[in-house]
Amino acid sequence: MQNFPSNFKTILSFFSITSLIVLMSACSQNVKPDGQTGKTPTKSATPKVTKPEPKVVYRHFPPDVMYKVMVAELLIKRDQASAAYPLMYSAAQESKDPGLAERAFQLSMTTFNLQAIEDATNLWREVEPNKALPWKASYLMSVRAGDINTAMAQWDHYKTLSGAPIESVLIETGLKVSQSADRAKGLEFLTKLKDTYPKEPASYFALGLASVNYGAYRKAIPVLEKSADLYQKGSGSTSSEDSIDPEKINREIYLLLATAYLKSDQPELGMEKVHPYLDDHEEDWELQEKFARLEVKAGRFADAEKRYLKVLEHEPKAFTSRLSVALLQLERKDYKDAISNLKQLRQLPEYRSTANYYLGLASQGQGDFKQAVKYYQSVKTTDYYLDAQLHIAEIRFPEVGLERTLEILNSLQARNDDQRVKLYRAQAIFYKLAGEKQKAVNMYSAALQLQPENVTVLLSQAMIYYDLKQYNSYVSNIKRSLKVEPDNVEALNALAYFYVERNEHLDDAEKLLKKALALAPDEYYILDSRGWLYYQQGKYDQAEADLKRAFSMQKDDEVLIHLIKVKWKLGKQDDAKNLWNQYHRNFPENTELQGLIIQLEK
């Protein structure tokens, strides 16, 4: 049986000088960047800061140094910190004064110039070699530059000068490096650090933490589990009075593991690994929420909903959980409870547009199209605005027709390729509804020009190809989908069922269905496909078992036809007729089903 989704339905990470500046702002007191008045928060990467009093004693400096310092400080007071930097750096370089060197470092970060930051860092380190903070800035810059050996030597010097327990330094390093260096360089450095300290659980934790921050989720899992194991065994060189509370670090490990398993698409394994810890910490509501996400990913919607409700019972302000519950309720068409939860979220400014969008879906699902349009029209934020407008077009399509609907779609502004693809998909859907299937194919082709590996578009276009009897194109699309997503259950089943229907390549179909059922053992339509495969192979007993199970899961007309035909082949004509008598009236539009018994008796 074919089963395609029919609904209308990146985090980009990058590393810049700005991220390094944010990082190193922790190294010293900050100077306010140019043009920032301090009255209105801005989106500058540099946090809001105040002007520190200069850590200098003016009478100690020669007049030319004093002049540069005074002019620099005047520029700072005028919010021109970047212009002040060259003067302060020159004064520090000439005087070799530690206070001026640190001041120059502070100012260098306002320049957004890596060379200036590096020069100021080196100068500060030169004039104050026994201070830890410039060594911290140095190792971060070396990691960023990819000079891992130098970074290791500088980090070791920083560790010694900081006087902090190695556990704290390692964990801090994992966080700082993942915020300042790109993924390849950061992970290379942290892996080398882990190999240098193989008995320190914090070295594994630092690498796991950074791996999650970088999105390297599969790399994160084994090192986080190793960290948990070492902490459990009490490994590490830190004395008990200085060490971080093992219970706190253990909790962080499991929170990160839950995220890593979720993001790496291994929900079942994630639940298996996290569940024992959660059993002992039932009131950790943050982890309960993360576990519920794993359950959703695994398709255990009822369990996830119960868990979310339990979280809300103890944490009424867990708004993300409330939204998740509402979406699960929408999924099973429990509109009353979904609407109740969404209306609570609608009172919060940060959730208002999201709630309005899903309230629109709930009203549309109930057939209250007038109310749905009102909710959709209340969606103002860019993340849901286009989707809301597409649903309004969907609702009004029967009234205004294809031409007017296309005019509305053409008036909508797409901000990126994802939104352009949405618009193409919407046009394709409306062309299909209007019976203009070749134009629908063309719209999907336009979408694929932007996103050639968009599996949803490939499968949707495949459906049209099938309707148009363009079977070579149908098969091509399905195979392209499987190259992108080899474990896509919809595509595996679609290609297998096509082969079964045509009674060709049955060995290939069997392999495809075996894989599909391994991935989704409880999907009725895959069981129907395998049952029909057995029918084509003459394995009628096995066919009957699969088809009976599929029909018990979903009273589907196509499954019913297959089951009746199998029973007829097995000589169970009375059973076949009883099934037909009991269910054929539920599907009056299926002409094959209505005349099935007459055909079988011929």
Automatic annotation (TrEMBL):
Alphabetized Pfam families for the sequence: TPR_16 (PF13432), TPR_6 (PF13174)
Taxonomy, superkingdom: Bacteria
Bias (Polar residues): 31-47
Location of the region described as Disordered in the Swiss-Prot/TrEMBL record: 31-51
Record InterPro entries: TPR-like_helical_dom_sf, TPR_rpt
TPR repeats: 421-454, 455-488, 524-557
Keywords from the named record: Repeat, Signal, TPR repeat
Span of the signal peptide: 1-28
Matching PROSITE patterns: TPR
Protein name (Swiss-Prot/TrEMBL): Uncharacterized protein
